[in-house]
Write a structure and sequence with these properties.
The chain is an alpha/beta fold. It has three domains: 282 residues, Alpha/Beta hydrolase fold, catalytic domain (Rossmann fold); 88 residues, no CATH class; 100 residues, no CATH class. The strands form two sheets. An eight-stranded mixed beta sheet has the order 2-3-4-1-5-7-10-11, with helices on both faces. Strands 6-9-8 form a three-stranded antiparallel beta sheet. The longest helix has 33 residues.
């Protein structure tokens, strides 16, 4: 019997706004696949390598959505051989956060406005001043509109203007900023909405794992979708307890220890050596992740059941606001640092767990003392010893042991040039993240670019090339993808 070849799933999660189902993913597929000739297998002359098809699929969870499937990718073994097909999915959530009110927006904005100047991130100080100016203007306008002015026409004009501002808040600002407020704030009004968005995302990711049709999942997120995707990767990792169990006698264990050693080298790397150490670490992430799928990288290793596999290989964030985490998901920088230290927010590299007394006692109870290789680096591990038969388990806050995180951003200036929402994620969540600065790739942007990460405008060609490298449809080691990064 011929076994069906497994495919690659690319899951795109959209950002804020009145998104239309399939509209976002259609444009993304054009840039990520149709224009990505380097990923295409060379077909017979009567076939088009870039072809795509729209297929109904129960995994999408909605009759409004379709799975977009492709022809074969190019094999890593030979340019004439077939690699896996790609299935693109859209994780659509706009309907679950619909209907935010202007009152909810103002509640959220107040929490941002009343922060001390010292707690406003440097990159947002200009926007914070603009927000205060706008708020004072609207407040002054509203006050003027209700005062008994002697000039009837002036008063009438102020009332009309104030009404226009109110309508703008309700029908223009609220649908965008309101969705941010509804997801990032753990407010009683928002708990059910946050849960519904996460449940939909977790169901899709679980189903992709459990179907048995996929060898790899690439998770791509834009704007606020990056915050949601980060949460989903963290939650899925913590719940897949069978995946996290690693036995000393399987190849995955050696890959894990190599990864932990690479993380320690990255932690101690001087700035001039950081890029090389990061590349080594990300290659170790990839090797470990391949060991967590059934059969390992080449299919000859342990056959894992679906609930024992981990398939998410990459988190690619585009225009991500996570650089402003202290502003969005915490009270201030100290609160964010405390929550990271307590493992609420996973980092990349994951935080190290030292072998302490209870663990050491379990290890010392073994019939034979473990080797130095088994004990791993002295500075700490991403795993802990469980006891029976040389079994270890990854800790719950270590999804980025197996997931490469690539963050593409465009530095802003004058608020409205570049992408003020985005920024480097590594300073916040760890140097294992590869931050790609688009200003270094194609120079300063003349306009606002938050919605242009997969725009096919001719002047955006270098950005599209970065996107194609980041999602890496053919699953290459990091060093092969980014060795010529400066020339992209």
């Amino acid at each position: 019997m011929v076994t069906a070849r497994k495919k690659v799933a690319v899951v795109l999660i959209h950002g804020i706004g009145e998104q239309i189902p399939m509209q976002t993913v259609e444009g993304f597929v054009q840039a990520a696949w149709v224009e990505n000739g380097e990923a295409h297998w060379t077909p017979p002359g009567d076939e088009n390598a870039a072809d795509i098809w729209y297929k109904p699929d129960p995994l999408t969870g909605s009759r409004e959505l379709r799975r977009i499937t492709t022809r074969w990718t190019k094999s890593k073994v030979s340019s004439s051989a077939k690699g896996p097909r790609i299935d693109f999915f859209e994780l659509y959530w706009a309907d679950l956060a619909a209907g935010p009110t202007a009152e909810e927006v103002w509640d959220w904005l107040r929490t941002l406005l009343w922060r001390p100047w010292s707690q406003v991130p440097h990159g947002l100080k200009g926007a914070w001043i603009l927000l205060w100016t706008t708020t004072l203007f609207i407040g002054g306008l509203s006050l003027a509109a209700v005062m008994p002015w002697p000039g009837a026409w002036l008063h009438f004009g102020l009332v009309i203007l104030a009404g226009g501002v109110a309508l703008g808040m309700q029908y223009v600002v609220a649908p965008y900023a309101g969705r941010v407020a509804r997801y990032v704030r753990a407010d009683p009004r928002n708990i059910a909405i946050r849960a519904a968005i996460r449940d939909r995302g977790l169901k899709l990711l679980r189903d992709l794992h459990d179907r048995g049709s996929y060898e790899r999942i690439v998770f791509v997120a834009h704007s606020l979708g990056a915050v949601i995707a980060y949460d989903l990767v963290s939650l899925l990792w913590a719940e897949r307890s069978e995946t996290l169990v690693i036995h000393e006698d399987e190849p995955a264990f050696a890959k894990l220890r190599a990864l932990e050693a690479a993380a320690h080298l990255l932690e101690r790397a001087p700035r001039e050596d950081l890029e090389r150490r990061r590349s080594d670490y990300r290659d170790a992430q990839r090797a470990f992740r391949l060991a967590l799928r059934s059969g390992g990288e080449d299919g000859t290793h342990r056959q894992r059941k679906p609930d024992e596999e981990w398939l998410i290989s990459d988190l690619v964030t585009l225009g991500s606001p996570l650089v402003h985490a202290q502003f969005l998901v915490a009270r201030d920088q100290a609160d964010l640092a405390y929550k990271i230290k307590r493992w609420l927010f996973p980092t990349n590299w994951p935080q190290f767990q030292r072998i302490e007394s209870e663990q050491r006692d379990k290890i010392n109870d073994r019939p034979q003392p473990p080797s130095t290789e088994v004990l791993g680096p002295e500075g700490g591990l991403f795993s802990y010893f469980r006891g029976p038969s040389g079994t270890w388990s990854m800790h719950h806050s270590a999804p980025f042991a197996a997931v490469r995180w690539t963050n593409v951003y465009d530095p802003h200036r004058c608020i409205f040039k570049g992408d003020i929402i985005s920024g480097p994620a590594a300073p916040v969540f760890g140097d294992g993240i590869l931050d790609v600065d688009l200003r270094e790739v194609r120079g300063k942007s003349p306009g606002f670019t938050h919605t242009l990460y997969w725009s096919l405008q001719p002047e955006n060609a270098k950005v599209i090339k970065v996107l194609q490298k980041a999602i890496d449809l053919t699953d290459r080691p990091d060093g092969e993808i980014w060795t010529k990064r400066a020339s992209v």
